[in-house]
């Protein structure tokens, strides 16, 4: 979200696409995933409010995953919290491959709607971050979740701080 809690264009496009999908499949349930720990700038609640107020999807068709702190957690929660085995992932083009890779690695039958990144130009600013996130995802899937202070995870955590943003 922007600092004023408004929805950025790249997220708005995905939420509007959810509305298009809902109009064709009114029985579909949408799971909104993100970091729901914050009272202010709570992206999950902001997405829910937009879908209900602006797009017209009823609350009864929306579930919230407030523990989707990263892609791995979001995908794992689809299995552990919502007991799903088949999903349609609606995400940005730059993020689609990593989301599908994570889903397939966790044995989730997943398909994706790849939203173009062109309108916001976000791909240029997120290119390096996404490349690092792919590496992080590979480590988590093949070596397990990070345990701070342990070997490669400690080095990865320090590197992520070096590039200016925690990748965990």
How is the topology of this model organized?
Elements: H1 9-24, E1 30-33, H2 43-55, E2 62-65, H3 71-80, E3 86-92, H4 93-105, E4 109-115, H5 122-143, H6 151-162
Parallel strand pairs: 1-2, 3-4
Helix pairs in contact: 1-2, 3-4, 4-5
Throw out a few tags for this protein.
two-stranded parallel sheet; alpha/beta; disordered C terminus; 4 strands
Would you give an account of this structure?
- This protein has 168 residues and is of the alpha/beta class.
- Helices cover 51% and strands 13% of the residues.
- A two-stranded parallel sheet has the order 1-2.
- Helix 4 links the parallel strand 3 (86-92) and strand 4 (109-115).
Q: How large is the count of helical segments?
A: 6
Listing every helix as H and every strand as E from the N terminus to the C terminus, the arrangement reads: HEHEHEHEHH
**Major β-sheet strand ordering:** 1-2
Uncertain spans, ≥5 residues at pLDDT below 50? 161-168
Note the gap between the termini: 19 Å
**How many beta-strand segments?**
4
Rg over CA atoms, rounded to whole Å, is 16 Å
Helix content: 40-55%
How is the main sheet built? 2 strands, parallel
Per the principal axes of the C-alpha atoms, what is the gross shape?
globular
User: What share of the residues does DSSP label as strand, in percent?
Assistant: 5-15%
Mean pLDDT: 82
Structural class determined from secondary elements: alpha/beta
